[in-house]
């Protein structure tokens, strides 16, 4: 079991590389991931959310009760900045309907499941990060369909009620089941071992989803690669900046501002990819855009977290040098 835990840690550490590798393999040999569709895809998505739920205990829900203002500010920022920024960038870059759909799907999803790790790397407020991820995930079955109907419902045919039911089954229920298991079984050694392995399982599940999209639509990536990556990058980086300044506007400390930047900027693009495949199967551009966002968000969030940590280290060294000179 310690070996599997170590493997899980390494998979989590190199999430972006694993996802990129899956996409490349799928484009070279599509049959490798062609099974990731329909009910199998739902099961994979559910596994990711179950893993997230298994990290949530009583103390995490207590955060929601003890820090309502922080969580409210963060959740409002999450569900206003990213959807509106997505549609704004789409109009600014004059994106096609397919790319617009993909970008808006990413913007309407809850915070990414890896954002808590990124907040830890950034020396942010991890409890705040967990609280925000929990709140945005719980609200996702309502907020995502509503925003999608409002922002793209007139240009793309979509089933808002069907998306709501799908997200209840694939996101909220697995999270609640995982969380209940964590609360009731957290003292069982076997459960602790399983819980420690789940982050790696989630990474492999993310990779499978991206691989499934690449297997079907990978050949279309280069048709609009430049503008697609530009739009995803602007959306993601804009989320970081606006999230950070939202915290500054509310008078939050540095740790909270960093956390808010990461929580707002890093989206659950894996869920967006699943939603695209389930509800817009004929729209190749949307599927590819959400899959690329999976990779981009994983890389950029990790880079940002490490950049914050590097900044602190650099300034702590500068402070030590200054104090030694004055003493």
Describe the protein in words.
- 82% of the residues lie in helices and 0% in strands.
- It has 327 residues and is an all-alpha fold.
- The protein has one domain: Na+/H+ antiporter like fold (Up-down Bundle), CATH 1.20.1530.20.
- Helix 4 packs across helix 8, helix 5 (68-92) crosses helix 12 (254-265) and helix 8 packs antiparallel against helix 9.
- The model has no long low-confidence stretch (mean pLDDT 84).
- InterPro entries: BilAc:Na_symport/Acr3, Bilac:Na_transpt, Na+/solute_symporter_sf.
Strand fraction equals under 5%
* Strand element count: 0
SSE class: mainly alpha
Q: Biggest sheet, in brief?
A: none
Label the CATH architecture.
Answer: Up-down Bundle
Rg is 19 Å
Q: Which residues sit in consecutive blocks of at least 5 with pLDDT less than 50?
A: none
Transmembrane segments: 12-28, 40-57, 69-89, 101-121, 128-150, 162-185, 197-219, 225-249
Membrane topology: Multi-pass membrane protein
Pfam families: SBF
Subcellular location: Membrane
What layout of secondary structure does this protein have?
Elements: H1 2-13, H2 15-28, H3 38-53, H4 58-66, H5 68-92, H6 97-108, H7 115-121, H8 126-152, H9 160-185, H10 189-217, H11 225-249, H12 254-265, H13 269-279, H14 284-326
List keywords for this structure.
327 residues, Na+/H+ antiporter like fold, 14 helices, globular
């Amino acid at each position: 079991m310690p070996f599997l835990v170590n493997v899980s840690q390494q998979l989590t550490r190199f999430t972006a590389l694993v996802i990129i590798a899956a996409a490349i393999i799928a484009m070279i040999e599509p049959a490798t991931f062609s099974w990731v569709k329909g009910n199998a895809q739902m099961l994979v998505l559910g596994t990711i959310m179950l893993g997230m739920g298994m990290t949530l205990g009583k103390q995490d829900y207590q955060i929601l009760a003890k820090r309502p203002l922080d969580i409210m500010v963060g959740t409002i920022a999450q569900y206003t900045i990213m959807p509106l920024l997505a549609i704004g960038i789409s109009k600014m870059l004059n994106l096609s309907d397919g790319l617009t759909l993909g970008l808006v799907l990413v913007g309407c999803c809850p915070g990414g499941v890896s954002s808590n790790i990124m907040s830890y790397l950034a020396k942010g407020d991890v409890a705040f990060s967990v609280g925000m991820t929990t709140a945005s995930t719980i609200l996702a079955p309502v907020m995502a369909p509503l925003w999608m109907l409002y922002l793209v419902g007139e240009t793309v045919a979509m089933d808002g009620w069907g998306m709501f039911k799908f997200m209840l089954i694939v996101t909220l229920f697995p999270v609640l089941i995982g969380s209940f298991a964590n609360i009731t079984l957290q003292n069982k050694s076997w459960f602790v071992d399983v819980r420690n392995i789940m982050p790696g399982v989630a990474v492999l599940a993310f990779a499978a989803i991206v691989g499934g999209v690449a297997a079907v639509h990978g050949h279309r990536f280069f048709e609009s690669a430049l503008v697609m990556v530009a739009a995803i990058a602007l959306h993601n980086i804009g989320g970081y900046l606006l999230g950070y300044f939202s915290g500054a506007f509310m008078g939050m400390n540095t740790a909270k501002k960093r956390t808010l930047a990461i929580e707002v900027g890093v989206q659950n693009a894996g869920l967006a990819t699943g939603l695209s495949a389930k509800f817009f199967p004929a729209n190749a551009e949307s599927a590819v855009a959400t899959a690329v966002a999976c990779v981009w968000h994983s890389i950029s969030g990790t880079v940002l977290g490490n950049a914050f940590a590097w900044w602190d280290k650099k300034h702590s060294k500068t402070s030590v040098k200054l104090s030694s000179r004055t003493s």
